[in-house]
Amino acid sequence: MDPNQGLCLGALFDIAATNGLDMSRRLCIFGFCRSIEMLSDVVEDTVLEHGGEVGAT
């Protein structure tokens, strides 16, 4: 990201998940990523920081 750039494009994200075995366990995370290109990495890091798992599809 260019620090001289006057406009910062980013993305808000929210993750809502439940445990397939225990539907009463829910997780909701809200966040912001300063670089749209890095959004996938930031979401993955956030999930891992909260003890979650990221599965490949």
Question: Can you lay out the helices and strands and say which pair or pack?
Answer:
Elements (H helix, E strand, L loop, with lengths): L10 E8 L7 E8 L5 H11 L8
Antiparallel strand pairs: 1-2
Describe the fold and architecture.
Residues 1-54 form the DUF7811 domain. This is DUF7811 domain-containing protein. The chain is of the alpha+beta class. It has one helix at residues 39-49; strands at residues 11-18, 26-33. It has a domain at 11-49. It has 1 helix and 2 strands. Strands 1-2 form a two-stranded antiparallel sheet. β1 and β2 (26-33) form a beta hairpin. The longest helix is centred in the C-terminal third of the chain and has 11 residues, at 39-49. The protein is elongated. The mean pLDDT is 77.
> Termini, distance in Å?
30 Å
Which class best fits the helix and strand makeup? alpha+beta
- Please provide the count of β strands: 2
Arrangement of strands in the largest sheet: 1-2
Return Rg in Å.
14 Å
Biggest sheet architecture: 2 strands, antiparallel
SSE string, helices as H and strands as E: EEH
- Which band does the percent of strand residues land in? 25-35%
- Kindly state the mean pLDDT as a whole number? 77
Discrete helix count:
1
What kind of oligomer do you see?
Answer: single chain
Low-confidence stretches: none
Shape designation:
elongated
